[in-house]
Automatic annotation (TrEMBL):
Residues 428-447 are annotated as: Disordered. Gene3D superfamilies: 3.30.465.10. It comes from Falsiroseomonas stagni DSM 19981. Residues 43-216 form the FAD-binding PCMH-type domain. This is FAD/FMN-containing dehydrogenase.
């Protein structure tokens, strides 16, 4: 353990510290291993100690002491990210936010809660107490935290109706603590929210959020099979455009993924058929049935979402990749946008180009006010060079890649420096100690897309011992 971490622990002995190497390593990891690139780069990364603050007073004391001793601090929620967002690239302290988990206020249209609350608990209490539910949640609803979703996510279940987390109104307020000699608490609202939204905790620790609620519905999982991927995509697109059908999910998965990897109901899917995995409000099922008939779909599964052992949302978004990885370690994935209005034809074009090397799992979404699709393609991995080539082919065809094979904030999105987030970091984290190594433009003001600094800049000499590695 470095002297800096030891000094912080000595200054704050009453806090909840963990130093056991195996437990610290466990809290230093997320689902980065979805990517063979990140697994190669980050498998040895670990922090030195974990601390779990119970309130803002304890958090302020931690950040002030770490600032005084120049100790990196990496925040962590449920650890469900896929890009190393919560991994301490330069060692130091892992900040476990799970104890800051109270609901502070709830009413029919909004809820205010601490960042460490599990989203499934937040959603359940809102449904019970005020008849509302979260507009958007990740496929990791059962394990993700609210703060982790906002810091590391961008959309998910519900984006078919509400768009992504950057869409106006999908986050109402964000409370963040700075890392200075005397940490400040800032309340961001309106456009200022974007300074800390999807910033991986690099420029402030999110302590609480105010989120809009939609009216709570009884959701029904419905799985419909189609003869081709194109037919399933056309159906999902049509459903997304139907204002008279309340929906939360339209996820299209091509053959043979459901048949081979979806154990809950995959055996019921006829060979060679793609599926659309849906969440639809119970009162609208008759209209859904008519739409399925119009598109010559074949329903193969239906149950209440809350009764499902493995609900449809756990077959969607990044969970689709996880379901496949459980039984096939040779695959990885991509994330891309198929922009409107030509998203369906673009999917068909790229499907023909790649054959079974790239299987086009897509999500119907609303993006910038238009219905289009997000791709979370399943890729048969061979080499990193071929993976780069596949991404290049997508982008040349008009499908921008949100690269899931990088831990850099800028590379994972639209490959631009977010100047507002960078400027906010200069004010809120002047020493650059918050989740260091993730914001490329902080370490290299001349950074350009593709100019990834040498990994040695990010590696720590406090690696896990060999017996703790995969």
């Amino acid at each position: 353990m470095t002297t800096g971490v030891a000094a912080v622990m000595e200054a704050l002995p009453s806090l909840d510290w963990t130093t056991d190497p195996a437990l610290v390593r466990q809290k230093s990891r997320d689902f980065f291993w979805y990517s063979p690139v990140l697994k190669r780069q980050l498998n040895r990364v670990t922090g030195e100690a974990v601390v779990a603050p119970r309130d803002e007073d304890e958090l302020r004391a931690i950040l002030a002491a770490a600032h005084a001793h120049d100790v990196p601090v990496t925040p962590r929620g449920g650890g469900t990210g896929n890009y190393g967002q919560a991994m301490p690239l330069r060692g130091g302290i892992v900040l476990d936010m799970l104890r800051m988990n109270r609901i502070l206020h709830a009413e029919a249209a909004l809820v205010r809660a601490e960042a460490g609350i599990r989203m499934i608990d937040l959603d359940a209490q809102c449904r019970r107490d005020v008849g509302g539910e979260l507009r958007i949640h990740p496929s990791t609803l059962r394990t993700a935290t609210l703060g982790g979703f906002i810091a590391g996510g961008s959309g998910g279940v519900g984006s078919i109706t509400w768009g992504g987390l950057r869409a106006p109104g999908n986050i109402l307020g964000l409370r963040v603590m700075t890392m200075e000699a005397e940490p400040r608490v800032l309340e961001l609202r309106g456009a200022d929210i974007q300074q800390a939204n999807h910033a991986y905790g690099t420029n402030g620790i999110i302590t609480a959020l105010e989120m809009p609620l939609a009216p709570a519905h009884e959701w029904i999982d419905v799985v419909v099979a189609f003869a081709t991927l194109s037919a399933a995509c056309r159906f999902a697109d049509a459903l997304a455009r139907r204002d008279d059908i309340t929906k939360k999910l339209a996820c299209v998965v091509p053959a043979p993924l459901p048949q081979n990897h979806f154990r809950h109901w995959g055996a019921k899917v006829p060979a060679g058929m793609a599926v659309a995995c849906l969440m639809v409000a119970a009162p609208d099922l008759a209209r859904l049935d008519a739409l399925v008939s119009d598109h010559t779909g074949q329903e193969i599964h239906r149950e209440r979402t809350e009764d499902a052992a493995v609900p449809c949302y756990e077959h969607s978004w990044n969970h689709t990749t996880l379901q496949v990885l459980k039984t096939d370690k040779t695959i990885t994935y991509l994330q891309s946008l198929f922009p409107a209005p030509d998203h369906l034809s673009l999917i068909e074009k790229l499907e023909r180009r790649f054959g079974d090397e790239v299987l086009f799992h897509v999500e119907a979404v609303r993006f910038a006010g238009q219905i289009c699709a997000i791709g979370l393609q399943i890729v048969r991995f061979t080499t990193e060079e071929r993976l780069d080539e596949i991404m290049r082919i997508h982008e040349e065809a008009g499908s921008p890649i949100f690269n899931p094979h990088t831990f850099l904030l800028e590379e994972g999105g639209m490959k631009l420096v977010d100047q507002a987030q960078l400027d906010f970091k200069r004010r809120s984290d002047p020493k650059g100690l918050l989740n260091p190594g993730k914001m490329a433009a902080w370490d290299d003001p001349d950074w350009k897309p593709g100019a990834v600094p040498p990994l040695e800049l990010y590696e720590t000499d406090r690696e896990a011992p060999p017996e703790l590695l995969d």
